[in-house]
Each structure stands twice: as C-alpha cells, then as structure tokens.
Amino acid sequence: MCLKAVAVTGGSSFIGKHLIKRLVSEGFDVCILVHEREFKWPGIKSIKGDLITGLGLDELIAGREAVIHVAGCFVQPRHEIFKINVTGTFNLLEKCAEYEIERVVFSSGVALCGEPPGRAWQEDDIPRPNTVYGLSKFLAEKII
Which domain of life is it from (predicted)? Predict the structure, then answer.
C-alpha cells in the first residue's frame, strides 16, 4: 500500500519544515497542524489547532492514512512542557484511534536517555531522563 495522505504535527518547526518539504517532493498530500504561527506553503493545507484542547484535530486527521507527530515543547514552564508533550500526544493518539489511523510516527529525543553512557546509545539502553523535557518525552513514549 502506498501512503499518500499524511497529517503532520509540528510542521512549522525546523524538523517539521524539512520533513514536509521531503513529503511534498515525494508526492504526498500533506496537512499540518499549526498552533500560533501563520504557515503558508504552496500545496500544504494548514489547520490552526491545539494538541492540548484538541482543537483542529478532527480536520487534521480526517481522510489521512498516517500521522507524523514531531510537535513538542522544551522551553516553556514545566507544566506547559508536560501538557504539550504528554497530554498533547495522548489527545492526538486518541483522535488517531477514533479515525482508525494505523500508522503513527513519533519523534522522540535523546533527552529521554539522560546522561550519555560514555559510548554510542543503543536501543536497549534503559532510559534515565534527567530533565523535564526528557521525562515528558519518556512518558509520551509510554503512552504510545
């Protein structure tokens, strides 16, 4: 099966912009969720919404075959980091389940690992987050 209709959260971020550029170049129909910033890019549908309140998630996900979740927050007050990274991920996944989205890609981060072990990280290393952001990404992974 060739996926063509994809929803992206965090599309206006650094990683998100590069991701959607690639998706569009590969012929995907891309729809992104934007929180505050106006985002205009030819061929991209942007939905103003909010992962915490769920605003815009129906419009973002309806008719999509996959969701790529790269939205995240690391510079807000602690409670906002948790709301966006944990509650927002939960809300998005609930909506994906409602729309029977079978493919969800989640962008986590090395911050959930904690201090480097003195060698390259390995997939079976035990996470030891030592920052609020790292803990929020760890919890988001547990939700998934």
Answer: Bacteria
Active site residue 99: no
Sign of the Cα torsion 97, 17, 37, 42 reads negative
Q: Give 71-90 pLDDT, tens digit per residue.
A: 988 777 888 899 999 999 99
Q: Give me the catalytic one of 28, 39, 106, 133.
A: 133
CATH of 5-109, one of 1.10.1660.10, 3.30.457.10, 3.40.50.720, 3.20.20.450: 3.40.50.720
**Each residue of 4-48: pLDDT tens digit?**
999 999 988 889 999 999 999 999 999 999 887 667 778 889 999
Where are the domains positioned within the chain? Answer: 5-109
